[in-house]
Amino acid sequence: MARPAAGKRLSFRWRKWDGGVHWVHECVYLGSDEHGDWFGQRAGWQSVRPGRDVLAPQDNVTLMPPSGDHALTMNAPPHRTRVYIDLAWDVRWSPEGEPSGIDMDLDVVNHSERGVYIDDVDEWEEHRARYGYPRDVVERLEALATDLERRVRAHEAPYEASTAARWLAVLAELAPRLDG
After folding, report:
1. What is the pLDDT of residues 112-124, one digit of tens each?
2. Sign for the pseudo-dihedral over CA of 130, 131, 135, 141
3. For the stretch 94-106, what's the b/e string if a residue is b when 16 or more beta carbons lie within 10 angstroms of its beta carbon?
4. Which of 31, 44, 84, 122 has the greatest CB tally within 10 Å of its CB?
């Protein structure tokens, strides 16, 4: 699929395994590198899901890697959550030309006070039963969560600050056009 031009505003649309609507993030396409496609969200832009509507407190960037099994979000300082990885299924460009994916509950987080950890294990267990996740999907994503936790702890690219800084700078360069 042809990628949009850098600076194109769009929505990153998440759904649950059963097809139900989940988060929709207002964002902008930033470009791509060896890690995949990058999107930015300016401070004050909206993220909404049923029952919740929030505004981004700081700029952040999100990577959609070609593997389609997670999305990496890195927040600009002083946000305390430096890294937030949504384990996912089928993260890709939709036929409508927007990023989309199935949120699979497990997350890998690097928080300035709590450190690096796997989050939402309780939600993962609950939804495994409710949605009937296939065994191969469960095994693959549990192994991936452990591997991503290791990679974040080791500060491997793209899960480290210098990669985020590069894409946050691209977002900042686009800011006058986006905010004006």
Report:
1. 999 999 999 999 9
2. negative
3. eeeebbbbbbbbb
4. 84
